[in-house]
# Entry
Amino acid sequence: MAGLELLSDQGYRIDGRKPDELRRIRCKLGVFTQADGSAYIEQGNTKVLAAIYGPREADQNMRNQICHDKCFLNCEYTQATFSTAERKHRSRGDRKGQDMSTHIKQTFEATIQTSLYPRSQIDIYLQVLQADGSNYCACINAASLALIDAGIAMKDYVCACSASLTKGKPVIDINHVEESSDCAELSVAILPKLGQIVYSELNGRLHANELPDVIDAVVRGCKDLFVVMDRTVREHLEETATTFTHS
Amino acid sequence: MLKSKTLMVKTRSGKILKIVREHYLRDDIDNGLLTDKLDLHPLLQNDLVPHEHFLVLDTNVILHQMDVIEHPCIKNVIILQTVLREVRHRSSPVYKRLSSILENPDKKFFVFTNEHCIETWTARKRKESSNDLNDRLIRIATKYYSDCLSDRNQQAVLLTNDEANCAFAVEEGLIAYTAEKYVKSVVGHPELLDKLAKVNEAIEVDRSISYPEHLKLSQLNSGIKTGRFKQGKLNISRENYLEGKILCPDVKGGEILIQGRLNLNRAVHEDIVAVELASEEEWSAPSDVMLDVSIQPGAEISDSVDKKVVSNAHRVPSGKIVGIIKRSWRPYCGILENYGTPGMTRHLFTPAERRIPRIRIETRQFKTLIGQRIVVAIDCWPKHSKYPQGHFVRSLGEIGDKETENEVLLLEHDVSHAPFSQAVLNCLPSPNWAIPEEELRKREDLRGFPICSVDPPGCTDIDDCLHFIDLNDGSGAVEVGVHIADVSHFIRPSTPIDEEAKCRGTTVYLCDKRIDMVPALLSSNLCSLRDDGDRLAFSCIWKMSLDAKILQTRFCKSVIRSKASLTYAQAQMMIDDPAKTDNVTVGLRGLNKLAKILKSRRILNGALSLASPEVRFHVDSETHDPIDLQTKELRDTNSMVEEFMLLANCSVAEHIQQEFPECAVLRKHPGPPPSNFDVLINAAKTKQLDLNTSTSRELAVSLDNAEKPQPGVNLYISTLLRILATRCMLQAVYFCSGLESDFKHYGLAAPIYTHFTSPIRRYSDIMVHRLLAASIGADVTFSELLDKQEIQKICNNLNFRHRMAQYAQRASVALHTQLFFRGKLVDEKGYIIFVRKNAVQVLIPKYGLEGTVFLDRDCEGNAMTMNNLNYVEQDCKIFVGSIALQVFDEVVVQISHDASNIQHQRINLKLVKPNLPGISSVPSES
Amino acid sequence: MSNSIVIRLPSKKRLNAQVPLSSNSFLITPGSVITEDADYMRGHGTYTNDDEEDHKLYASVAGVVERINKLVCVRALKTRYNGEVGDIVVGRIKEVQQKRWKVETNSRLDSVLHLSSVNLPGGELRRRSAADELTMREYLKEGDLISAEVQQVHTDGMLSLHTRSLKYGKLGQGCCVTVSPSLIKRRKNHVHNLSCGVTIILANNGYIWINSTAVDGTKTTGDGGFVVDTEPVQMDDREAICRVRNCILCLSRSSVMLYDTSVLYAYEASLQYQVKELLLDEIATEIVDQTLSLLERESSGNG
# Structure
């Protein structure tokens, strides 16, 4: 009986959401003037800033990574000291951050049309201001918006969402409380318009029979997220495009 | 849908944590008023509330008045999320009971998710405690309901036990009562009053006794952290209800003794308590006195448990209880003591469990309840009350009535024996179910094989069959098959029938009754491998050499047709009859031969053969009263079946552990700690027998040596030693292989073991079947099957159920022994198996009966001074005057049924030989 | 001093009056299908799937769809600079290499300025000697700003620049403003001497150079444009430069296309305010509004 009841018999989660509901999403494009592209996203209490620099001349230190037929991605994930309940200094190279950077990089390598930018470099900087579960997903979504803001050619948006399974029901967009219980956590990034999964990661164990349900739920979650993101991008476009076409 | 946030700042272990959680408020939450989850017109009449009304319950009402709430007349209740969460947090048994009410649609209980409803949510005020916040939330929700209901001319009534909360509610214009006041005014259900728990007022105030105050939980926690207090589960001695101990690994001996009423300080058996260790000079020794309440009903045994001369050597860490961390009260079965005045409402209740103190209750039904077995729950234990106080829950029936007594022992051992629910029965196939074609095609067809079953007479749930074929392939190899009923084919995971079986865990065999784990249609028909048709089976087939070496093991799902359902005796006769040469008989002979080889090899490996006195009652077919009893006989065929079952279990265990190293269900038997054997070694020494207990093999060898006849040692002694050895053992337990590393089975001397062969009566076997089926591709896995935590949880329940089933079985034997001796007076030979300070324990092999002969009481049962007793612990010897009684001594006792005390009927043992003046009884005529 | 710092909460950007987009240009986001017609040619910001069956044309960036005959492009609203031959750029020297300079011009790759593409002191027809290679750093060193023209666009997107005109060369005292390249309107002339005594170079790569006309005028031919005047600039000129800079920032924040007229109108509109007030939200909005209405009046007058 110990532990929290993640899903009540009445069908509500601890924070009052139903299993298939996302947290509140707020996002914004173009938050920095210096960066080529930038975005900020809040998924509930998970708050992430993304900044894109490039495509630009590759840094001399990265010379070994330069490709002559495509650009390479450099991704840095950092978490603020004040992002979790306990203040904790996280050095730039800590394992968790490096893993996360690699995962994010892999996700976008599949999506950015890198062959359009030979010999270049694109930097993706992600800063988690507040971590309340599904950090990876919020980072992907923020980076996706920032890349669009930077005008970098991509096949599609990338939308990511996480899910877990409790009492036999898939719950999506899990927060920190749900994340720290011992359920499995599935993070999936998809290309919503093309309907392709570009990344998926499962922490913990999930039975093969239950996986399809969870994936269905998580893909639905991604698509809901996409609607919000697309609306934000369109609003941003309209804002900047109206006077633009004046000429 | 509206959203908002709350901020919470918590501190833990000195560090400041800022925990921010989202809290969404919604406007789409069902309040239950428009659905059929609550009646449109609630009907419970109450003098206090003239209108139709719904009840809103406060947490404390649910925690204390569950028996009232469970009464069928209490309907249309709104349970708030706030309350439900609190209940879940505070008491898991109450939460379980509440959950089962919530599942019952007739009760019309509805859970309102008030904290996420935009209209009933409120933020915590500055410096408001969480209790006050919860109270306020409850009041706000009640207000919301009364507003919603005012259009319909109905009302919401808040019931709370908290006077302050009640007053606040009334101030805010709500209708609120304390539960007591409300229940007293309910129209038409006077019986509710008895069920009312009185938490706030003491029924009995006895200024002569004043227990020390319990410390607050926060004080206890800090005390435990600093090491001043020890935490543990109180285990009251079976022999002496004023003595208990807690396990505590950091003191010498691992246990802390708590003696005396005041030191126990209102703690009840199995409560989690905090104990303060006394200084070393105050330590005392466990009393060897048998303290028996029932012998002197009503009279109080002096609290001064003789503190006299306790030699230093016997002193053990002692302490006193300073506070209760968690109560684990449950409803107790028992009887009312009848020395009270019938006209009074206050009475004492004696629980059947010896370790529970008597309970003060209030009832107006004394006249009907006296002479009945009743169930009572404890409500509280005030400081100035000698006994805890409680309330009447329900009556079970007449004392002495066999049905009632069975009910009592089932309840006391937490055996769920209610008929299977409709949902469970719905999972069953139809009674004339036949094996479908499709299933036949998927399985191996073994219907032509000479398969037979061998079981005790009258067995209807046959779960194992055997076959033996000489392969005649020149290599001398033979094929042996064990076929087990394929229960997992019928019990699919996560169905109600599966849940029920998982909860029951095992079939419980009482002397005259069987409490099935699965409905009878499966246990006695479809899954019972009778010789009347085709059955589905799970087969384990070995290719063996003639010296019983396994050459090859194979598992498959199969269809079989048993050629014969035999009893042990029948099978033995067939084997012994040289005229018989049919397939089955030849097979039995082959099996028997192999079994003997297997057994000798097993024993060589160090498997123990232990003994326990087992008896079987002959029951009158009409009255179901026992008319005779006999001890179980052992034939070759018994051990033949057993050998192959052990072999199958071992093979399966090995296989599933290989296939599912993380989540195999296995059974292990830990070796007992050496100190457990002290009693046995001491007892054996008295007969100049030296036992070596360092390994199971050595123990087996020394027990065998004891069997050789020696001068001055009676022949029964080896059996007695085996019985004693059995009592030194630890319990074998189920566990999940992913969570432990030691798989050894001590008793069987097997490196790995599980239960595979009795899926009809054990749930563990069903789990093993599922794993095995998945491993051979005959079935699919599912998530719970592979979740090791989940498996361990189930295993823990199974272990508990098995233990309880065993206790219930013993209790049932005891009950039947009593019934058997009713009105009889028999002199019988017995052996002393334990010697205590004031008594000896005697085992009477003929009846498998064990009892205590008190040496400090005369033959009428009155206490005597015990100055002529001289107890020598080292030699397990006691001198009564000049006559010595020593362990393993043969004595003659007179067995009688003592019904003088209707409350506690019992078997009385009196010593006949040796004749002790003043103590012994005259030999009976017979 | 205390009231000289203004701190504000972020405010929602004012939505500009909605101007209907023309029929063959509309907004699109990445991954959306632009057309299912296989006849169109795919231009920048679009892609097709390799799949034989799938003839759809997808957008790869968020922006405005533009169709020119059969060519379909999606123009992103904010990107790096995509150079074209003949463009004027302002860039910063990043590295001095053998026979060439690397110039940062806000494009994907650094641009190169060959030693052979500059006018060296001492006349146009002078031969480049080995000595010149050694003294390259004397002409242009890391951090120097130059204006130049795009001479060539390589296949990988790299630009070659030249400064073989008196118009181009090292930039001296002045102010550089960075805006999105897409805000610079393509014109015949990108260097404007404004009436207020300020010269602006609205370079195509989004780097805008502002300096005083008077200083600019002193440039002589003899030194090849590598010597800059270090005389202090007059206070009035400095204020005018700042005013122009702030006006350009105001316009770029509201995504108004930048060209001589728009800058001039904004300058005129700003005259009623102090220079330091110009970047305050309300005033900036006011200036942009006035500029837009002036521009509109002009275009309707022309029409």
The mean pLDDT of chain A is 88.
